[in-house]
């Protein structure tokens, strides 16, 4: 064993095995991991969110009129993306291990960038529909792939801050997307191209360029990171693997078998996390796809105002996300953070859907967007803290994000009608938050009982002596 590995971190005390603080060298290694892995993953996810959500900006920018989006056609376009997005999640988490994260993730980005570019030249609404279906195929692997990869690099009480940065950069990108869309629509008529088309064309070009950058930045799994771009030395990789094994004993790759991959389907907590994530994403996708329309048709703002007013709630959500993530990792708790955030949404949704003054409704938008989005990394962290094993982690990531897609399907349907206050959608989102709260509380009580049994020697959790569920 190397000297560096012998000084691996105690995941509970935040110190080395012999009780000393983390060395400067150890901090340097994890900082290198952060700069490459978090930055690369976050850049890719930012364009992932922008490219999925820019259809809402294009909708109020003239696309609905130009391409004859009568009746429920817009909701159909939003909905069909999620069909393929859900179906292709499970194989994607297998492929990222087989193909390697740098090639797999950058290829996904490049492909959906090309599709974005194609949407800018669509002549009929059916072409937008077909491209959105394909977009679901290539976007399916990115989020669960990154979530799986990040959870393999960090210990349990380091991970929520990293998830928050990864997801929070996407939220900030969503904020900037509205302002960017506003600027691009001002290019209306340039080279004879409508302004809403420039949204797809230029954002597609940006995405393709970022695909090449992500290939350089993204790193492989810890057991392979010393290969390829020589990101870490073999000694440094050994250190990272050792600290993960010290934390939860699952750093090494496991041979893939279908039985090993599907076995976690019998674990009820995997589905509890999936239901929680579905409840969250009913809210997040409703805001991502329909907030520009709610601000325009529901509150009476002009197109430019609606596009720009989408930005502040997402910035507030990112700040809330970073703050609660730091607190969650600091106190080594997840449930208090989850409950606090869901309460924000439970306050914000009635304000947005039931009050009449636009000022009060807009405050409700802030609380709804912040509460739902801040809970996404918190939910991801809670799940990552309480599952063990490479393929269990892969399967649970796939189911979590598949139910993310189901939440998107529901959101695309319930906010289709109901202007100006969109009460059917608001009441559906409220119900989802109540269900989320009930699942969190139930799972927390069960975890507490399991931990107490393990303390008395009556149970071994996850097959590892000394492992305890994070609550």
From TrEMBL:
SUPFAM superfamilies, per database record: MFS general substrate transporter (SSF103473)
Domain Major facilitator superfamily (MFS) profile intervals: 37-449
One Pfam family recorded for the sequence: MFS_1
ATP-binding among keywords: no
Ranges where the record places region Disordered: 1-23
One cellular component term from this protein's GO annotations in UniProt: membrane
Keyword Transmembrane helix attributed: yes
GO molecular function list: transmembrane transporter activity
Membrane-crossing residue ranges in chain numbering: 33-50, 74-96, 103-122, 128-151, 163-184, 196-218, 270-291, 311-328, 335-355, 361-382, 394-415, 427-447
Record keywords, A-Z: Membrane, Transmembrane, Transmembrane helix, Transport
Membrane topology, from the record: Multi-pass membrane protein
Compartments where found: Membrane
Entry similarity comment: Belongs to the major facilitator superfamily.
Name the record gives this protein: Major facilitator superfamily (MFS) profile domain-containing protein
Organism encoding this protein: Penicillium cinerascens
């Amino acid at each position: 064993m190397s000297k560096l590995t012998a000084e691996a971190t105690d995941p509970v005390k935040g110190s080395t095995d012999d009780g000393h603080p983390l060395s400067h060298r150890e901090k340097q290694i994890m900082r290198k991991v952060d700069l490459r892995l978090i930055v690369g993953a976050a850049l890719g996810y930012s364009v992932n969110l922008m490219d999925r959500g820019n259809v809402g900006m294009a909708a109020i920018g003239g696309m609905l009129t130009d391409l004859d989006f009568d009746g429920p056609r817009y909701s159909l376009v939003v909905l069909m993306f999620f069909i393929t997005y859900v179906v292709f999640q499970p194989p994607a988490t297998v492929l990222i291990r087989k193909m390697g994260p740098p090639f797999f993730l950058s290829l996904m980005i490049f492909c959906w960038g090309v599709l974005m570019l194609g949407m800018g030249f669509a002549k009929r609404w059916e072409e937008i529909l077909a491209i959105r279906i394909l977009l679901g195929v290539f976007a399916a692997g990115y989020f669960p792939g990154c979530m799986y990869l990040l959870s393999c690099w960090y210990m349990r009480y380091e991970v929520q801050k990293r998830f928050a940065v990864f997801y929070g950069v996407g939220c900030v990108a969503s904020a900037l997307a509205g302002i960017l869309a506003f600027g691009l629509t001002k290019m209306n008529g340039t080279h004879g191209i409508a302004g809403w088309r420039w949204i797809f064309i230029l954002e597609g070009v940006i995405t393709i360029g970022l695909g090449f950058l992500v290939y350089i930045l993204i790193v492989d799994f810890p057991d392979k990171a010393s290969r390829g771009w020589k990101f870490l030395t073999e000694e440094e990789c050994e250190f990272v693997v050792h600290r993960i094994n010290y934390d939860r004993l699952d750093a090494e790759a496991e041979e893939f078998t279908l039985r090993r991959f599907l076995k976690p389907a019998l674990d009820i907590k995997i589905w509890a996390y999936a239901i929680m994530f579905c409840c969250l994403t009913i809210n997040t996708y409703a805001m991502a796809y329909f907030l520009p329309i709610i601000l325009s048709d529901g509150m009476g703002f002009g197109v430019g105002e609606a596009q720009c007013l989408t930005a502040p709630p997402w910035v507030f959500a990112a700040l809330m996300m970073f703050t609660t993530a730091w607190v969650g990792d600091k106190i080594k708790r997840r449930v208090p953070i989850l409950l606090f955030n869901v309460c924000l949404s439970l306050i914000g949704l009635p304000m947005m859907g039931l009050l009449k003054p636009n000022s009060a409704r807009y405050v409700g938008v802030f609380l709804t967007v912040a509460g739902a989005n801040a809970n996404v990394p918190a939910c991801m962290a809670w799940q990552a803290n309480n599952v063990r094993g490479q393929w269990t982690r892969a399967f649970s990531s796939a189911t979590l994000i598949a139910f993310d897609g189901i939440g998107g399907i529901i959101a695309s349907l319930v906010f289709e009608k109901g202007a100006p206050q969109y009460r059917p959608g608001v009441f559906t989102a409220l119900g989802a938050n109540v269900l989320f709260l009930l699942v969190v509380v139930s799972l927390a009580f069960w975890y507490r009982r399991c931990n107490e049994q393990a303390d008395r020697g009556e149970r071994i959790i996850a097959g590892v002596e000394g492992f305890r569920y994070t609550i």
